[in-house]
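hi!! sorry for the late reply, been swamped w classes. u asked for the two structures so here they r. pasted raw, havent cleaned anything up. first the sequence of the first protein and right below it the tokens
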Amino acid sequence: MKFGFIGAGKVGIAFGMYLRKKGFSIQGYFSRNHISAQIAAEKTNSQAYKKVEQLISEIDFLWITTPDDEIQAVCNHLAERKLFREGQIVAHMSGAAPSILLKEAQKRGCHIYSIHPLQSFAEIEKALKDLESTYFSIEGDLEKMHLIEALFKKLGNPIFKIATKYKALYHAAACVFSNYLVTLVDEGLHYLERIGIDQEEGFKAVLPLMMGTLHNIEAMGTAKALTGPIARGDQLTIESHIRILENQMSESVAFYKRMGQMTLDVASVEKLKDKEKIAALEYILKEV
């Protein structure tokens, strides 16, 4: 099976390198910026195409790795030019968008998929290394699903299949785990900065704490891994947190209370069963 890519950004290059590393044949890349295609081709020992029709004619499996808001337009353009041939597999790698973005390819006899690596691609070489242990989500046509499964079995990556109707919810979850984690860390670093600890030093200090928490979640699950004042029902400590935030960082009070409310929900599953303490914390954490 010969693979080709439209789009030569970090995702397209890193995944192409990964396929090549695992023994698959990369035919080449097409990009509006031909220099980008040349860079991708060099890294994957493949070709940089100046004409997209030539690339499409020489491959069995097309990966559209453009920015999300360009995927459908790219597919529609190829379909309008009648460049697809029946039986080709066409996939995009967006986490948020379903395979239906590629419906014009499907109308021309192609099998369409949304295949998303549950991984961030901030830097190509690191992404290539991280791909070794990355899960992939797959959504799309059932007819050739066995070929997609076989591909990832050979790659050695675990997969999970999701229904089209849940694609946006899946991506929302990925955003919480990745993007919102950054926001959560940033918020905590601002607290440390307010008391005179610079963000770089603060991050070094709390990283072992965060990693320990993640290891506990891995070992025990979220409910049993939870520690701290809410898990203990410690009303006085939570009140002191809110008072200092109201005095020093009033803009963060609503955030702290909302996180506290959600943490109380987790605590009540395993760690905190005292109904009076739960009620008291609910009152303290009410957003007024």
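now the second protein. again sequence first, tokens right under
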Amino acid sequence: MHCDTLWYHANLITVDGPGLGVIEDGVIAATDGRIVHVGAAASAAHLQPAQRIDCGGRWISPGLVDCHTHLVYAGNRAGEFEQRLQGVSYADIARAGGGIVSTVRATRAASEAELIAATLPRLDAMLGEGITTVEIKSGYGLSLDDETKQLRVARELGRLRAVEIVPTFLGAHAIPPGRQAQDYIDEVCSVMIPAVAAAGLTEAVDVFCENIAFSAAQAEQVFLAARQHGLAIKIHAEQLSNQHGAALAARHGALSADHIEHLDAEGIAAMAAAGTVAVLLPGAFYFTRDTTL
């Protein structure tokens, strides 16, 4: 069988069979950008490649998926990490106008071109580690114009690099300065979700259900609006306290509940029954210097 490329002398992780499905001294063949053969070296006798690449015993695995990122943003929070090292809680920093809201200010001030330039090195670093699919959340705009700006940048990244981008609308990430939570959630549900859905800018809607963000009732309002517009749902839940957001999300058929350090047995059971994926974020856990396990 003719093929374009044959990679040989490789150790393969196939994720097929027991464990990782490892094939030592394996081969992979591809034609027109698609894999046509995977197996042990002895299985390659029938292949006639135009190009052969000796992998020198390196490991090859399926492309990695990062299912929770906030990749598109401006500014940094280095000063806040210093505060955390000094014992100031993440919640106190957020209530003082830091945290998410500090990144919102910088992201609102940045143009789309500036956001692309800032994000590409972060994306390239991920691609260098073998990631081929990246979920990118908005959430640092907290206004229709700035949220859609982030989502457009996410889409553009997928055109600039050989990677699958999965955009998620996270307008309900924090309460904007000077706004009331319910008033803002009403805008998210009646204005923002319909707009991003109509523009085809997102595949899912996320919400931060927490005592410094939005209540379970407000999260449910977001879920209902998302479903009304044919969008999948996710939730940031149980990161700093147990608001029972994961169980709520599971009842609505959420794709995932993320963070969940304070998840209880009821939430675990609800997620298991619904097939809602648990997404753990050890980097965020480290940054907030939480100790709940």
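hope this helps!! also noticed smth abt the second:
The mean pLDDT is 95.
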